Amino acid sequence: MAKITLENLGHSYMENPQSEADWALKKLNIDWDDGGAYALLGPSGCGKTTLLSIISGLLHPSAGRVLFDDQDVTDLPPDQRHIAQVFQFPVVYDTMTVYDNLAFPLRNRHVPEADVDKRVREIAEMIDLSDTLKSRAKGLTADGKQKISLGRGLVRSDVNVIMFDEPLTVIDPHLKWLLRSKLKELHQRVKTTMIYVTHDQTEALTFADKVVVMNLGEVVQIGTPVDLFERPQHTFVGHFIGSPGMNVLPCAVEDGKPHFAGSEIETASSRNLNELKGELQIGVRPEFVQFADKGVPAKVVKVSDAGRFRIVETRADDTSIKLLVPEGQGIPADDAFLAFDRDHTQVYRDGWIVA
Amino acid sequence: MNNKTINHAAWIFVLPVVALVAFNAIIPLMTVVNYSVQETFGDNTFFWAGVIWFEEVLHSTRFHDALLRQLTFTFTILAIEVPLGVAIALAMPRKGPWVSVCLVTMALPLLIPWNVVGAMWNIFALPDIGLLGRGLNVLGFDYNFTRQPGDAWFTLIVMDVWHWTSLVVLLAYAGLVSIPDAYYQAAKIDGAGSFAIFRFIQLPKLKRVLTIAVLLRFMDSFMIYTEPFVLTGGGPGNSTTLLSIDLVKIALGQFDLGPAAAMSLIYFLIILLLSWIFYTLMMRSEAQ
Amino acid sequence: MRRYSWLVPTLYILFLMLPIYWLLNMSFKTTNEILGSFTLWPQEFTLENYRVIFTDPTWYNGYINSLIYVTLNTVLSVAVALPAAYAFSRYRFLGDKHLFFWLLTNRMAPPAVFALPFFQLYSAVGLFDTHLAVALAHTLFNIPLAVWILEGFMSGVPKELDETAYVDGHSFWSFFLKIFVPTIAAGIGVAAFFCFMFSWVELLLAKTLTAVEAKPIAATMTRTASTSGYELGLLAAAGSLTIVPGAFVIYFVRNYIAKGFALGRV
Q1: pTM beyond 0.90, yes or no
Q2: 2.60.40.10, 1.10.3720.10, 2.40.30.110, 3.40.190.120: which CATH number matches B60-287?
């Protein structure tokens, strides 16, 4: 097990990257603590698989270093980094039995057969494959195969980190949940660092202690699920996480205070905005907007029922603002006023949080 | 594959194919069967001869020898071309400009008319003016494929390897590139060496294409006629007279229609039977 | 080890090119030079052999004849194989499996077995020594092959495509020709390539079924070899020229070859 440090890491698939856009990964500095459960979350094409391949050593970064416990491993091949990876599509060795599949990484490392046997049985027990040890891996269902992939990582005692590249893509929906909780349980048992790549926020937020959100080759926020929800560092995080996503409103400045639609908006910080250059925006999640007697004037446009609450779409000053109204609470018919929860309203400049 | 609808009217779609192939296959086959059970004295009168031609062919040493030569030839070239083809495919680049170069140049021998292949190798191997023949003699080998049976066999085998290994290469290569990258990556992470990668990833995935390669090479090498005929004419003596060559000698050279027809049928049945055995054996091992 | 792996294909290609080089080398030599001395490249470079082929009708007609029946065969095989392959890939019908197997057995029929009966059959129907006779005879092994390849490609096209087209109001033929055929264009290319290839390289049947009018280039070559002594230079030039159409065809379909083979249908 090890702490993983990415230092000034960057990668481009081009020989001579010219502009910013040529880089699939822009300058990254991340520390992954030993034993943590991380999720790497972002839309397709944001560079998360590239980052994963660099950590595992399948890809050599164009710039920067990868450190395992402060040791430079940038030039080491995957098998010397002591990592394990579960791929999007299950990879099993078709001609081998489940047992031989699990034993394969150990046998390749010339572990004595007695230890192999002990370890394989122990892990098979852990991932509920004990009954199928003797059968051919080829005949298993997709979730069984993914368990084998995972098991091949777990059998090795020297593994620094186990990485998952969207591992539930081909799993039936009703089994996804089961496998996910199994994974969480395993993490608590073995305490190996795990990095879970996904574009599904539910998967990320339920699995991870810490989530790394990426967009366009950049890390936009690293934080606990609660951080991401309550204090998005970037409007992208606000949009991407939460359903519906955060409301982003144009922000005007008067006397150093944020204003929207003619009203002053109170925020958690009392920073003077006059000194800021660039485009300012106000961000507030639908969960923290309420109907009130006074505040921002708005018109109710649409109400949709989402079970325990309703999503109300309103329009204020040509901007759409969504809010959540709990069951049983009244919704004004037409004209209304909106109040924002002070502690959960932030100001962003060019996308990044400032106040 | 399993959700096909039952529709007997689909026969209309296959009718043209059936008509054409039947015209080419059934009528000539009936002609052959017809000859095989009759005796003629060359004046277009035929007599019922029963199965005597079949007995004659099956008991003749000439047929036995030709069959033995045929089997030797077929299994030798299979033993060389299949492993060699796989080895070359493994060493080929997976991407980049060289892929096209390799594919195009390697496919070239497959598109040369068979008699040209024979003629080309004849010229290439002639001991006086051929590069190969002359070269071998310069190096101190007493090589002359028109006089020495061993040399004739050597040339025949090398020619077939030259002509057909590319088919195995192309098939194996296509099988290899269809293996997803994740398999190689997983194997790297699991610490597998290149032999383990070949044994546990590449070979299992190649099984299907290799089955086809072996079947095709088997069938085609069993039917081979033009190339050895042009190269050696079956000689020296009868040393390279394979089944097809012998058959044409009997049918068109000596006009012994009865024995030729009987031999044709036996020959055809042997190919069908061996192909079927090959096919079921390999499918069974795949199902395992 | 991986660093030196390029050596293997390189050596193999070298081995493939040597006899072809020797053929080309011979084709640029005079008969005197061929018989008189052993030279690694032409000392008295001559295009005389090629001039003979391009000016003598018995020679260049051979090429034209070959190209005519090969093209005819390719078009015919693919055209009839298309609906049949569609039927095999989409429907189950009485005797479908047996029929498919029977078709494939014809791929295993040795031409040597059929040479004589073919001669009699095509003489009887009055097609002897026509391009059509050779084109038809070659369908014996090319149709099964085309059906096999096309069926593989068609099975890869989801059935929903057909159903959507019918829902959108296409008739069967308008769907088949306007939507389905373009969808499997790659498959048609691969099938046509193999039909071309096997028809172009076959000699025994082509020679048996022709005399003068439709004589293929390959037959012209064998007759020259046996009648006019040993005009090796001429023979080499003719042989070199037979490689050209094949090389062209491979070049155009090079990107499809691997895909066609990948389906495991040859």
Answers
A1: no
A2: 1.10.3720.10
